[in-house]
Specification:
183 residues; Glutaredoxin; 5-stranded mixed beta sheet; alpha+beta
Length: 183
């Protein structure tokens, strides 16, 4: 497992379009979320311990913001030939076991991860209504022990953006397992 930190991406970068299959076999694209005030795109997978540690927090975050039209979307870009747990069946199993309340999409050809400059799992991107990047950083200050979290940075970024204010706190990189690229 190679530990990586997310890349620095300029704020204001437009969200890249995509068309990806979800675990429900529906094809999803960026425009499917046009009615959402804010969009959180997160690159996750099934086998990474950094992702496993935050999965329940992601479900809770979506539940908390559902009434405010904030939508989380998870994308798995890992090479599932090398990591079979990350294949579509594994994604369906994980989503079912953890009651995922957000779309979970498969980036089979890894083009979306490359377009977004995603390098690790988890990797979080918050886009405003115009689908411009306003936050690219970590979920919170303690990936491993949820009871010790003191700063929920992604939540703070969402709250700030919902108030039409600019995020003024330092955005710290997410860290996690490297995306498993096809060779």
């Amino acid at each position: 497992m190679a530990l990586l930190h997310s890349e620095n991406i300029p704020l204001g970068t437009k969200a890249g379009d995509f068309t990806l299959p979800g675990i429900n076999e529906k094809l999803w694209s960026l425009s499917d979320f046009d009615d959402s005030e804010l969009l959180v795109i997160m690159f996750i997978c099934n086998h990474c311990p950094y992702v496993k540690a935050v999965q329940k927090r992601l479900v809770e975050l979506q539940s908390e913001y559902d009434p405010q039209k904030v939508r989380l979307v998870a994308i798995n870009s890992n090479d599932y030939d090398t990591y079979p747990e990350d294949n579509l069946e594994g994604m369906q199993y994980t989503a079912n076991e953890l009651d995922y309340n957000f779309p979970y999409l498969l980036d089979d050809f890894q083009e979306v991860a490359k377009d977004y400059h995603a390098v690790c799992t988890p990797d979080f991107y918050l886009y405003n209504k115009d689908r411009k990047l306003v936050y690219h950083g970590r979920l919170d200050d303690n990936w491993q022990e949820p009871e010790k979290v003191k700063r929920r940075e992604l939540k703070r970024a969402i709250d700030t953006t919902l108030k039409n204010k600019r995020i003024r706190f330092k955005q710290l990189s997410s860290m996690g397992c490297s995306i498993k690229w096809r060779t």
